[in-house]
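Worked Example 4.2. Consider the chain below.
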Amino acid sequence: MNKKEKVQFVIDTLERLYPNPPVALRHKDPYTLLIAVLLSAQCTDERVNQITPILFEQADNPYDMIKLSQEEIQQIIRPVGLSPMKSKGIYELSHILIEKYNGQVPADMKALESLPSVGHKTASVVMCQAFDVPAFPVDTHIHRLMYRWNFSNGKSVEQTEKDAKRLFPIEKWIKLHLQIIYYGREYSPARGWDIQKDIISQAIGRKSLLKQFS
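Applying the procedure from the previous section yields the following structure tokens:
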């Protein structure tokens, strides 16, 4: 297969396995998604989904969030880890949303990236999942699989994102980002990787990696 055929093989396989991939983080609007994604840094989606209902019961919008102190937010979100930094970010960005954006989450990448504790990946997730604007957020699963499939060199997530956007059609980015994550978790994990299960890597994987299994 040439590169174009390999890309199409990935698209077709993922479409067959995950025709309707759900957004893993529970949310009801752009603000609750933004907070959930921020909390998910270095934490599992499952853990975040256990904590967000407790937080959102008290504050599911920036106006209610700033009624809580940073310490109160930190106490609630402690189980997701990095709670001092995350609580500070949530408290400060809620103030900014009220002061600058009438309490609304801006549908603008640069504006999102300027918010405290909101990096490029978080902003990208919010753009595509909350506002349906094409973006390709790269998490550890996508970074790993793009390398295993020989679609990127694995040097940096920035490079992986550039390569993903170059290889995959823009109209597929939003869905593909989710499909690759689900595939990585189920078929091509970082630990306990079973090449017999990983049908995509078996077919198109980086030869130097596949040699380990031959």
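The mean pLDDT is 97. Residues 187 and 202 are 11 Å apart (CA to CA). Compare this with Example 4.1 before moving on.
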